[in-house]
Every structure is written in C-alpha cells, then in structure tokens.
Amino acid sequence: MTTLDTRHLQQLDAAHHLHPFNDNAALAKRGTRILTRGEGCYVWDADGNQLLDAFAGLWCVNIGYGRKELGVAAARQMETLAYYNSFFQCTTEPTIALAAKLAELAPGDLNHAFFTNSGSEANDTILRLVRHFWAVQDQPRKNIFIGRHDGYHGTTMAGASLGGMKGMHQQGGLPIPDIHHIDPPFWFIDGGDLSPDEYGLVAARRLEDKILELGPERVAAFIGEPIMGAIGVYIPPMTYWPEIERICRKYDVLLVADEVICGFGRTGEWFGSQYFGFQPDVMTIAKGITSGYIPLGAAMFNDRVAWVLKEQGGELAHGCTYSGHPVCAAVALENIRIMQDEKLVETCRHDTAPYLAERWAQLGEHKLVGEARIAGMMGALELVPDKRQRRFFRERGSVGGVCRDHALAQGLILRATWDAMLLSPPLIISREQIDMLFARTWKALDATAAGLAA
Ligand SMILES: *Cc1c(COP(=O)(O)O)cnc(C)c1O
C-alpha cells in the first residue's frame, strides 16, 4: 500500500468509523494504525512495518496468524452448508461435533455448551440461565451475581455489569440490578505485610463476607476470570481459587469461571481453572476457541445445572440467530485439531512458557519494573516510580502508554493498561522470538526510563 493510500484510508476511518475503547477524537487526529497481513507471530502494518505481536491480537490468536487450514475449513463448510440455525428442533453437524469436543476438553462435568457469537454474549447467557436455574427450583430470589471490582466480562449490559470497571459503569447507567462486587486479589498493591499465600485467603474471604451480608439465599453465583486480564493481568496467589471454591460450595453459590482469555492454552493448561486447581460449575469461553479467526463464544454448564435447565427449565427463551453457526464451529474444530495435533499446550507448559518466565523475570530486574508477574503465556510488567516500594505512579497511567509507543518503535506490540505492560503472545512463539521479545522490551524500558529522567 502506498503512503497515499494509507492516508486516504485513515481519513475515511476518521470520517466514518467509531472505534471501540478509543478516544475517537484523539484517534482521528493521530491516525489509525492499519494492519494488513499476519504470519506466525508477526503482523505487518500499512506503512510496511513488521511487528512481533506479543499480544496475540487481543489475547486470542493462539495458534498464530496465517494458518490456511482454518480458511479451508471455513470455505468447505460455506460451500456445503453456509448456515442453518439451532432453533426449531434443528442443528448442523459441525455444531454437534464441537459441543462434543468441548465436553471432552472441559474439566470435570462441564459437558453442555450453549453457543454465542462472543464472550460478552456468553456472559449474558449465564446471567439469564443461572437465574432461571434457581427460579425454576422455587428460588427466584436467589438471583444476585457477585463479581469483582476491576473485573472484565465484556461490554454488553450484563457483561459490563458483571465486570467491575468504573469507567464502563459510568456509560449507560450500569450496573443493572442485583449485581455486586468485591475487591480483586492484587497482592502487589493490596497485600501489605502478608505473604501472597496468606493474602490469597484474605482476599477470597471477602466473598464469604459479601455472601453473608447479602444472605446466601439471595446469591446465585460468583463470577471471576481465573487471571484478571484486561485490568492488568492480576494473577491471584495459588491459595485464592481453592478458597473461593470452598466458600461457593458451603453456601450453594454457583462458581462461574470466565475463561474467555485463560481458556485454550493461555496458562499452559487447557483452562485456567486447571492451572489453579478448582472446578467451576459454569464457564464462559470465546477468543482462543477459534484463535480469533472467526467470532464464536460459548457458555458451558455442568451436569447439575444442565439437568435442571433441560428437565425443569421448559423452553429456553434465549439464543442468537448465529448460535452454533456451522462455519464458526468448523473453524473452531480445526483450530482445536491443530492445537492437539501439534501439542501446543504441552509445548508451552514444558518448554516455552518456563523459558518465557525466565526471561520475564530478567525484565523484572529493570529499574522501572516493580513486579514481573507471569503464568504460562500471560504476564505483566508493573512499571513503578520506585522499585523498592509496591506502589503506582502518582499520576497513574502516565507511563504505560509511553512505554507501549517505545515498544512499537522497536517493532514490538505490547499492551499498556495503566502502567502495566501486558504480555499474551501466540502460543507458538519460539525461544528465538522470546529472546527478541526480551531485547525489544528491555530497549523500550530503557527509552521510557530515559524520558522520565529527562
Ligand atoms: C474479551 C473478554 C470478554 C468479552 O468477550 P467479547 O468476545 O469481546 O465479547 C469477556 N471476558 C473476558 C475475561 C474477556 O477477556
């Protein structure tokens, strides 16, 4: 693409395209970055820059870019049967095969899938169906969901309400009723003098306090991301989730894992709940299920919940035109086949993730980094004003964006949330590419530190 074409596209974009999660006025002035091609862990932009994508698009391109097999699977299904619905006593072959495949992969007895187009819709689905689950068992007042402040569960009315992002709640009058939040587990800022493991228990017991405050007969479910992604990769201590599980069982509160990021290998296990050793009753998935090649999400229910929904729930008054879309299902099946045949999750767990963790810890020695946290293929560098203290910059968020731009100038895509640099590369990243990631990140940190000193 010529520079002229690029400028023209940027002008059209500014004139006609409202971007999600952007200050659109500022973006129009700056000009959108237009991506044109992807291969493996790299993407190219319209100016011809080759970038190492250490964020896998948006936490999703797990098998990397440019895998032709997924295009072939989509084309074949489009030619055979481009669409049919799953309403009206019908469905299609790939949809059934995917539901069965997910039941095989999902931990424990999460054997039942309800398909959506996105993670947000999957979370909307669980809000409705879990409330319905309790209502048809004569407990209509057991309808409250507890989430976490700063959690992220998508942007629909239910998704944004279950999430705990204040800025999102301010737009559109959220949260909707009967959704409550507890503080997230973030030892770095909140842990005080406790060890991470001690703190994990303290943070989990906030759930018990909240359940007792509201009354267990009112609380339908607790929802959480195994690792909180969007807010800055908050990795809870290993004591946190088993204690959350114990509390949920004690009060008969359903445990919902939002696995939209953590699912499909991100932690070096198939699902984040396996990494932390707990068993959800319900889970939501999206992103990595198709490696982002086509939109697809699902809510998965265990035998108990599915039995009630089927045997007592009557007609489920819920669904999308594209629930279980055969083309999306065919692409998901092909994506999962590649992950299994090429042993991507095992390679991460035993080889590349431990190596990445080593290199990430070395970045933690940089004077700008207060904490280098990582779990599997998901990490963050918390940039701080003073390495000896666990606290944020006074003007929070003033440094992360600067560091992100320095990384881009080095040919590296990292995401900045506040002053944390977030990492979530394609699972296929090689040791050589991890070395490149290390070198470019170090240079970006140096450039950022130099700017702060100036
Ligand atoms: C991205 C995300 C969602 C929302 O998924 P969409 O497909 O963007 O609607 C929900 N939960 C988590 C944890 C996510 O990261």
From TrEMBL:
Tell me which positions the record assigns to the signal sequence.
none
Q: Which PROSITE patterns match?
A: AA_TRANSFER_CLASS_3 (PS00600)
Q: Which InterPro entries match?
A: Aminotrans_3 (IPR005814), Aminotrans_3_PPA_site (IPR049704), PyrdxlP-dep_Trfase (IPR015424), PyrdxlP-dep_Trfase_major (IPR015421), PyrdxlP-dep_Trfase_small (IPR015422)
Keyword annotations of the record: Aminotransferase, Pyridoxal phosphate, Transferase
**Where, if anywhere, are coiled coils annotated?**
none
- The organism's superkingdom is given as Bacteria
Among the GO molecular function terms of this UniProt record, one is: transaminase activity
Presence of keyword Transferase: yes
Q: Which cofactor does it need?
A: pyridoxal 5'-phosphate
Q: Record's Pfam families?
A: Aminotran_3
Family (UniProt): Belongs to the class-III pyridoxal-phosphate-dependent aminotransferase family.
| Protein name per the record | Aminotransferase
Q: Which organism is it from?
A: Pseudoxanthomonas dokdonensis
Q: What is the lineage of its organism?
A: Bacteria, Pseudomonadati, Pseudomonadota, Gammaproteobacteria, Lysobacterales
